[in-house]
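Exercise 7.
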Amino acid sequence: MKKMWQTLGIFTSVCAISEIIFQIYRYRLKRSSVRKKTNKTEVLFFPDKKVACINYFTSKCENESCSFSHEENSLSKLFQFIHNAVKSVDVCVFVFTCTDLADLLIQAVERGVSVRVITDCEQVDIPGSQIWRLRSQGIAVRTDNSSFYMHHKFVIIDNTRLLNGSFNWTRQAITGNQENLLVTSDSQLVCLYKERFAKLWRQYKTKKDQ
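Solution. The predicted structure, written as tokens, is:
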């Protein structure tokens, strides 16, 4: 009888341990699944055949004869990433002449989103540059003030999503050049670029900002 109770006790213990191991496995599997979904990565390739309609993809296009594209493309996805920002947009880009992207940054500020821009000092006054327009709307912009290029092209949205590649914010990059933007929510990559942006932001601090 005693031996039977001992056997039963061992069996119960084994079952309990097995259940604990199974629950740990389920928890880790669930965490892994969530991490994979969170770290979704995609690539936006340019050029697009047509320029996406900013109104169609961020609000509503009421122009029945609209000449811009209402089909999803790389630019339309970029529009939506910026439009959906709720906390912050940190832009580090060499050339910025695209009025639609400038509009989205200004709209973001109006929604209460923190927007900061770093660009190359030699590109500030080129024809079509949007930098002075951004500054006139209260957006903080800092430049490198160097004979070398500030050649980065990346964006950090809400401190959780990174867009990085060869893409300058210009019409030529949208419909002419062969360009790319890697979009990822990988926390390690996002953290590295956040650190780089913070370093450049401090480095390019002007007397006015002090």
